[in-house]
């Protein structure tokens, strides 16, 4: 049996000898986390990885001046789970259509462009920031069961109305900050559920904003078996422990 390969670079410059060893064993990687400063720092990791199931790339900053040859991994037939921070100059990075689990730290417009290709997703966590820009309407996610929306820094602005662009008929679990549902949280939730025709089993209202009482949520959505409220989940950092537990669960 092939061993799992766990690799984490933590904002350090690896000696060339170490990089050469890592590249030589790339065909054995199954789970990998890379913490890098820019897109240039991951270009050495490109190439065929036939066993890779999950990759997480933590970015210190995104690349304003793109490399001459954009980074992409297409020869990864077993890849199912990606966690990706805003880093790359293009969204043509992975074969999105084969993924079942995706965590993105991106601007809303880029998230939508990726989601339009990621039609097999079962789990999706979107960490939104920056300018919303023009967002494609009615992004279809036919297999999605869990959707989590989170602001990167807790201000809530970029994700406002983002839920209105999605349709997820198989959705069971929705976690969303109330700030993303303003100005009419109940109406936006009703519209999303009606449009998706989903049968939610769990709704969690996160964030430290409350314009609607918890009792109103419970009353308006009494057909949802579990309605939770968590004011401690306000931004991406507050999800750190939860994400660590999910990291190597590949659907």
Order of helices and strands: HEEEEHEEEEEHEHEH
Compute the number of helices. Answer: 5
Relative strand content: 15-25%
Average residue pLDDT: 84
Main sheet record: 9 strands, parallel
Strands ordered across the widest β-sheet: 1-2-3-4-5-7-9-10-11
How many angstroms does the end-to-end distance come to? 20 Å
Q: SS-based structural class?
A: alpha/beta
Low-confidence stretches: 5-11
**Would you report the number of β strands?**
11
Instruction: Please give the share of residues in helix.
Output: 10-25%
Shape: elongated
Radius of gyration computed on alpha carbons? 19 Å
Can you walk me through this structure?
This protein is elongated. It has 5 helices and 11 strands, in the order αββββαβββββαβαβα. About 3% of the residues have low confidence. A 9-stranded parallel beta sheet has the order 1-2-3-4-5-7-9-10-11, covered by helices on one side.
Secondary-structure blueprint:
Blueprint: H1 16-24, E1 31-36, E2 54-59, E3 81-85, E4 101-106, H2 108-115, E5 123-128, E6 139-140, E7 146-151, E8 166-167, E9 173-177, H3 185-196, E10 202-206, H4 214-220, E11 226-230, H5 240-246
Brief overview, please?
This protein is of the alpha/beta class and 251 residues long. The chain has helices at 16-24, 108-115, 185-196, 214-220, 240-246; strands spanning 31-36, 54-59, 81-85, 101-106, 123-128, 139-140, 146-151, 166-167, 173-177, 202-206, 226-230.
């Amino acid at each position: 049996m092939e061993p799992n390969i766990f690799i984490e670079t933590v904002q350090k410059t690896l000696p060339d000898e170490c990089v050469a060893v890592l590249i030589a064993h790339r065909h054995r990687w199954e789970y990998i986390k890379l913490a890098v400063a820019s897109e240039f720092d991951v270009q050495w990791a490109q190439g065929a990885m036939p066993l890779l199931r999950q990759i997480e790339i933590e970015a210190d900053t995104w690349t304003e001046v793109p490399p001459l040859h954009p980074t992409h991994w297409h020869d990864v037939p077993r890849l199912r789970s990606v966690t990706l921070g805003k880093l790359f100059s293009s969204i043509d990075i992975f074969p999105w259509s084969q993924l079942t689990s995706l965590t993105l730290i991106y601007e809303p417009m880029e998230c939508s462009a990726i989601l339009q290709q990621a039609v097999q997703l079962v789990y999706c966590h979107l960490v939104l920031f920056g300018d919303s820009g023009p967002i494609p309407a009615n992004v279809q996610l036919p297999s999605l069961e869990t959707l989590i929306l989170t602001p990167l820094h807790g201000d809530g602005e970029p994700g406002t109305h983002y839920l209105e662009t999605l349709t997820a008929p198989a959705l069971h679990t929705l976690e969303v900050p109330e700030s993303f549902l303003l100005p009419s949280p109940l109406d936006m939730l009703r519209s999303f559920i009606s449009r998706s025709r989903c049968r939610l089993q769990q709704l969690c209202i996160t964030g430290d904003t409350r314009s609607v009482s918890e009792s109103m949520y419970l009353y308006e959505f009494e057909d949802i078996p579990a309605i939770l409220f968590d004011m401690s989940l306000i931004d991406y950092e507050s999800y750190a422990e939860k994400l660590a537990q999910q990291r190597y669960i590949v659907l």
